[in-house]
Amino acid sequence: MRQKVIVVGAGLIGASIGLQLQRQGADVTFVEAGLPASAASGRSFGWINAGFYLDQTHHHLRAEAMAAWHRLHRMLPKLALEWCGCLSWDISGDELEARQGELSQMGYPVERWDRARIADAAPMLASDVQDALWLPGEGVAEAGVVTRQLLRAAQTEGAQLMTGTRVVGLSETGGRVSGVTTQSGPLQADNVILAAGTGARALLAPLDVALPMLTRPGAIMQSRPVARVLDRVMVSPDLEFRQDGEGRILAPTAGAHQSDDSDMLDAAPDELAHDTMMRLQRWLPDVEISWERITLAMRPVPGDGRPVVGPCGPAGLSVAVMHSGVTLGALMGELVAQEVLSGEASDWLTPYRPQRFAAAGAN
Predict the structure, then answer these.
(1) What was the pLDDT predicted at 19?
(2) What is d(CA 334, CA 31) in angstroms, rounded to the nearest whole number?
(3) 3-state secondary structure of 352
(4) Domains identified in the chain and CATH numbers
(5) Full-prediction pTM beyond 0.85?
């Protein structure tokens, strides 16, 4: 008999997991409090990479996640993905050389470019960029679009989607999860997966499952459309930026956005947008830039900065909460579906189990 699975959250992580479950024989219902990709997934910079990592184990997880995106892209060729590569000069000198060496040692494609190569590849970039790393395997996802594409693919396979339906609790019968409670009433299921980002903690708390979350607000500035000037992700010492398919230049307002540990935004949204625009103008001096939009979101960052994935609480309940969900999304779909349907644990996820917080006495 087909397992009935409820996926709480219709962001990128939930959409990827639900698609893989549906394709492998489950009956999936997505339950989303708002609209698909209405939280962090729809407000993401969209960079797919393993050049950012917390340790070597985390790097290898992210590298495998990039490979998973290629597998998913072959399955769904119209996904809004682009493998454009990344040019990074956020560090220089000995630090840059050390990063190149470390990435090369881990088998990650990386090249060092001099000024002539940089000028040839990115002629609109400020002339004082003299030395950079080229990471050819990296890419971008228009995360909100991709999320909706994955949901549509899952629905084509038979999945169902409930929007505007807030989950307020989890149901348990005989020591096993039996569904969820929504503001409109109960829904029954054999398995429940919490892919609800920052909302997962409150749902787990009544079950005494610890999920500490950091407060990590983020903001993305979008410019008005300009002529095509960028064809890759750019990483400067104070800014990450790229251009989307409509000509808008996107830039997180925080430098080193992926590792930003600020627990509050330090200015009003319009001030953040203006400051980001001015920093961007410094790197693209010949491009007339004006900001059109700034989007704020609370990034779902677990307490130690690492993903939280796997079974927790009563049997039949799993969680999948993480930052850098754009990079990790396709792989999480594969691995969580495998664990839920087969009962076999994935070695990839061993360091990222929710039980580590209980062991540490987290509240």
Answers:
(1) 98
(2) 20
(3) helix
(4) 4-45+144-211+304-359 (3.50.50.60), 85-138+215-302 (3.30.9.10)
(5) yes
